Amino acid sequence: MTRRELRKHVFTLLFCCEFYEKNEINQQKELYLDNPEVHLSEEQAEHISARVDLVLEKKEEIDELVNNVSENWKTDRMGKVELSLIRLGCYEMKYDDDIPTAVAINEAVELAKIYGSQEAGAFVNGVLAKLV
Predict the structure, then answer these.
(1) Sequence-separated (6 or more) residues with CB below 8 Å from residue 41
(2) Sign of the dihedral defined by the CA atoms of residues 40, 45, 49, 51, in that order
(3) Tens digit of pLDDT for each residue in 40-63?
(4) Which end of the chain has fewer beta carbons closer than 10 Å to its terminal beta carbon, N or C?
(5) Above 90 in pLDDT, residue 73?
(6) Integer angstrom CA distances of residue 63 from 26, 30, 79, 83
(7) Which of 27, 41, 33, 61 is CA-nearest to residue 131?
(8) 80-95 vs 120-130: helix axis angle to the nearest 10?
(9) If DSSP codes are grouped into helix, strand and coil, which group holds residue 18?
């Protein structure tokens, strides 16, 4: 499985987390990762789950960073697709030394183009670029 495919699964789970209470997130992760239609090895599922946990641990810090650079669009007003991708991209930029900033931004933008509105890619790019 490619890094992009793994990232897509992380994004999907982060997006799903927006609809559940904090105490339900682990159960939702298990349901997703154990779904036979998702086709994940145990190692891939562990990687995805760990990455989701890391992003969620930094969620408040990430939201504060994003709110400091976003003009007129604070995190509580953003679409859930865009917000999930911005959080993932910001995490990769600020806390993961293995992922170059340009790659983190590009990957978030590409996923936004697939899963977001027509303007989602530009919006995600604009916010993440301000965090550099």
Answers:
(1) 1
(2) negative
(3) 999 999 999 999 999 999 999 999
(4) C
(5) no
(6) 21, 25, 14, 9
(7) 61
(8) 30
(9) coil
For 119-132, the pLDDT digits (tens) are 999 999 999 999 99
Location of structure tokens 């990762």: 33
CA dihedral angle for residue 104, residue 109, residue 115, residue 117, rounded to 10 degrees: 150
| Residue 11 parent element (H or E) | helix 3-17
Q: Is the pLDDT of residue 33 over 90?
A: yes
What six digits make up the tokens of 77? 């007003």
| Token couple for 18 | 């927006």
Residue the block writes with tokens 């933008």: 109
Residue 105 identity (one-letter amino acid): I
Structure tokens at 63: 């939201």
Q: What is the pLDDT of residues 78-117, one digit of tens each?
A: 999 999 999 999 999 999 999 999 999 999 999 999 999 9
117: left (phi over 0), alpha (psi -120 to 50) or beta: beta
